[in-house]
User: Fold Rab GDP dissociation inhibitor from Piliocolobus tephrosceles.
Amino acid sequence: MDEEYDVIVLGTGLTECILSGIMSVNGKKVLHMDRNPYYGGESSSITPLEELYKRFQLLEGPPESMGRGRDWNVDLIPKFLMANGQLVKMLLYTEVTRYLDFKVVEGSFVYKGGKIYKVPSTETEALASRAPLDPQDIPKCPSQEGP
Assistant:
C-alpha cells in the first residue's frame, strides 16, 4: 500500500464511522479499516440468528422453534436516536445516512433471568407489565394536593 492518507480510522463502531465521515466530508483522505469481517464493532447487528450463536460460541445453534434464522436481526447494543437530536443532524451532515435505515420502533424486548420481557412504551403497558422492575427505576410522581 503506497498511498498516503490524512487520517487512518481503525474500527467500524458508530464513533469511528462518524469520525471517518466528518473527516471525509471536510476533504480529508481517509483510510477506514476494521479487523472484523463485519461492520459495527461492539454495536453491530447480527443476522442470521446462526451467526449470533457462532459469535458467542454456542455449539447447539438456535432451536427450530425460533423459525428461520434470516428472520432475526439482533442488535448487540440497541440503538435509539431521537428524531431531531444532534446525532441525527451529524449523521445527515456526514451523509452516513446513505448506509442507514431509519424506522419506527415497533417493540423492544429484554432478556433477563432466562425470560424475554417486552419493554413497556406507554403508561398503560407499564402498569400492566409483569417485567421485573427495580423500584429505583420508577419515577416519583408529584402528589396533587386539594384546595
Summary: The longest strand covers residues 7-10. The radius of gyration is 21 Å.
